[in-house]
Amino acid sequence: MQTRMIVAIAGVASALCAIPVWAHHAFAAEFDVNRPLALEGTLTRWEMINPHSWFYIDVEGPDGEVEQWQIEGGSPNQLIRLGVMQYTVPVGTLLVVEGYHSKDRTNKAVGRNFTLADGSRLFLGGSAADIPQ
Amino acid sequence: MADREEAARLRGGRYDAIENGSLGERCLIMAGAGPPMMDAGYNSNYQIVQNRDYVMILVEMIHDARLIPLDGREQADSNVRQWMGTPRGHWEGDTLVVETANFNGKNPIFRSTENKRVTERFTRIDAETIVYRFTIEDETMWTRPWSAELLLKETIGPIFEHACHEGNYGMANTLAGARMEERLATEAAAVQKKN
Question: Which residues pair with A95 in a beta bridge?
Answer without folding.
Answer: A41, A116
